[in-house]
Amino acid sequence: MAKKTFIYILILSVASIPLGFAQGYTIEANGAKLHYKIFGKGEPLLIINGGPGMNSNGFAEMAKNLAENYQTIIYDQRGTGQSILSNRDHTAVTMDWMVKDMEALRKYLKLEEWTLLGHSFGGMLAYYYATKHPERVKAMIQSSSGGMDLALLSLINLRDKLSEMEWDSLQHYQSQLNEGDTSYATQLKRGEFMAPAYLYNRKHIPVLAERLTQGDSQLNGWVWADLRKINFDTKETLSSFEKPVLIIHGRNDLLDEAVAETAHQILPNSQLELLDRCAHYGWLDRPDVYYKLIDTFMSHIN
């Protein structure tokens, strides 16, 4: 079961074409060194990448684009990228610790509140943060979010998004990985046959496939085990969350749009936007529409 979890869920985190860089900084908090980058000036917008088990490098392009109007912040979640754990085991990688890290970063940056943009698993983490610190959330943007609970586990349609050849090839290379062949070449081939499930515009497959080689399967498993342990479900708590929430979801996403529709029904001040010709990465498949929706939303809340 753990191996299937890695196949079907890890790449909810895969991201974008790295473009543009900002100076990186590191703070020490909660037994970890947390690495972050800041782009631009203006209203603070924390971009929470998906995963779990992926660094934030792939979100630099999004951060740079949005930094034309806002101060965007990306960070490596604990145990990923340059965010190093002093004690790397399952007890150090939980949803509660990740929320504490976000709070440590907010306090260090001396921000009273910020807007959260959570993509995929990052959306789940944003929801969880909002249950713990609602007064610190000015607004939320949920981008192809994993949702408010664990319903996504039965709403991921990876097989249906791949051709028979792609599916068979994916199974072949995943089997090689499971049997101990963790070479870069094998990981890249698996990525090449997995990536089409997450994209409407297939020209991005090479970049996405390479990004998929960077996932940490051990950390991924720890976080999903914790999500099950705490029976992750934010619906009841956030049913009274009055802050503005923008929910963006592709109609061609392998995550069923029911995930987004459920959130829209529960969140009293939410706006749902379903994008045609768009899968899991709105800023890749429909960048014009995706960024315009965010800019319009941000202008209204500010």
Describe the protein's architecture and organization.
With 302 residues, the chain is of the alpha/beta class. The protein is built from twelve helices and nine strands. The longest helix has 15 residues, at 164-178. The chain starts with a helix and ends with a helix.
Question: How is this structure best summarized?
Answer:
The protein is α/β, with parallel strands linked by helices and 302 residues long. It has helices spanning 2-9, 60-66, 95-108, 121-132, 164-178, 184-194, 205-212, 217-229, 235-238, 258-266, 282-285, 287-301; strands spanning 24-29, 32-39, 44-48, 71-75, 84-85, 114-119, 137-143, 245-250, 270-275.
Compile the SSE list and pairings:
Layout: H1 2-9, E1 24-29, E2 32-39, E3 44-48, H2 60-66, E4 71-75, E5 84-85, H3 95-108, E6 114-119, H4 121-132, E7 137-143, H5 164-178, H6 184-194, H7 205-212, H8 217-229, H9 235-238, E8 245-250, H10 258-266, E9 270-275, H11 282-285, H12 287-301
Family: Belongs to the peptidase S33 family.
Organism: Marivirga aurantiaca
Protein name: Alpha/beta fold hydrolase
Major beta-sheet overview:
9 strands, mixed
Mean pLDDT: 92
Shape: globular
- CATH superfamily caption: Alpha/Beta hydrolase fold, catalytic domain
Structure annotation, total helices: 12
- Estimate what percentage of residues fall within beta strands: 15-25%
Structural class: alpha/beta
Question: What gap, in angstroms, lies between the N and C termini?
Answer: 45 Å
CATH architecture tag: 3-Layer(aba) Sandwich
Cα-atom radius of gyration: 18 Å
Q: How many beta-strand runs?
A: 9
Task: Please trace the helix and strand order, writing H or E for each element.
Answer: HEEEHEEHEHEHHHHHEHEHH
Number of domains: 1
Q: CATH class, please?
A: Alpha Beta
Low-confidence stretches: 1-21
Q: What helical percentage do the residues reach?
A: 25-40%
| CATH topology category name | Rossmann fold
